Amino acid sequence: MKPSRSFRRISIACAVLGLAFSPALVRADEWEENTRYYEDDAWYDVSEWFDGNDYNPTDEAIGRWDDETYDRSDAVTSTDEDNDIDWTSSSYGYNNGNENDWYYDYSDYGYNSYSDNNRDNQFDYVASYYDYDRDGLYDAYASYWDTDGDGTYEDMNFYSFSDVTDENSDEAQKSQAEAEAKQKTQQSKMKSITGTVKSVKKVKTPATTNVVVQLSDSSSDQPMIVDLGPANELDNTPRLGQSLTATGVTFKAGDKTVLLAQKLERDGSTTQINRSGRSYTGTIEKAMTSKVRGQEHQLAKINTDQGKTLLVDLGPAKNDDLNVSEGTQITVKGPAVKIKNRAMLMATQVEANGKTTDIKRAAVKRQDLASSSQGNARK
């Protein structure tokens, strides 16, 4: 029997919070069908903080309200010349006059969060975000677990941040179908490739400019394409003829197969590639907590150095590694999502008080939290 949508939403909500989930512990009617992601009305009070935003710079212009959607006419009059790609038309492509290059000039890889808890080159957990209407804000995400370490993902949950009506849209149904298909083909074990740098180029993505290399290897007739992550995260650009080893996951972009590197080895050193997302720096003006499916989360209003305002979910309020308050200078990274038609950054990494903290939104071992989940279910 196919589980009800309410039942699926319970398991998905647990995935969002990093809580354990067991069908035997949670009743399908625990949550109302229309239960909002943020349970209390404080979320709507927070929305009044907005006087601008800083998520989607594609069509920004001084003195004009940025509604977080791409508009071609706005882009024409934009002052932001670095973001002139119409991502609503295609997720990859070439600039005019450059159709025969070995890799695209721009490509939208989406946002994926990977977790290799025991550093065994196998991802225990992956979260992939989906943007239904390609407005630069994510509307849903799917989470995957390889619970027994066999290289395949046994568990998959899909959660939509949007209203129930949006969950039934063609775009939402298509995204969920893609997420389910991905589970069947995606492998948790990382792939490593070693080769000599044949070509190097910088590729525009919606959030960053990435370095992409073409590697030649005597054991393969075809050069291999590797995305090495944001250019500003690399100490230096790979040299032509340089030997390197990249470890990560492969995916398809058009007719290209690309390794999305998570780790880079070259010249005797190893680098973990940071793919946390766009970076925003500013000062916390206000802070508060709000319930997210039964767990208190810390929210912050950040005035950025660019004079704009961000609303950020900093994760569970009880986080001993994160010590911030109003007035704290802070840098946050992560994907921007749309909840109740409001934009919010879901922080995956926070820099504050001279310390960098990764925000954990998924359980390291779900079975370790079984007793906590059982306690919540009995309440």
UniProtKB/TrEMBL annotation:
Protein name: Magnetosome protein MamS/MamX domain-containing protein
Domain of life: Bacteria
Keywords: Signal
Region feature (Disordered): 167-191
Stretches with biased composition (Basic and acidic residues): 171-183
Keyword match Signal: yes
Domain Magnetosome protein MamS/MamX residues, every copy: 279-356
InterPro entries reported in the protein's UniProt record: MamS_MamX_dom (IPR058837)
Keyword Cell inner membrane set for record: no
Residues making up the signal peptide according to the UniProt record: 1-28
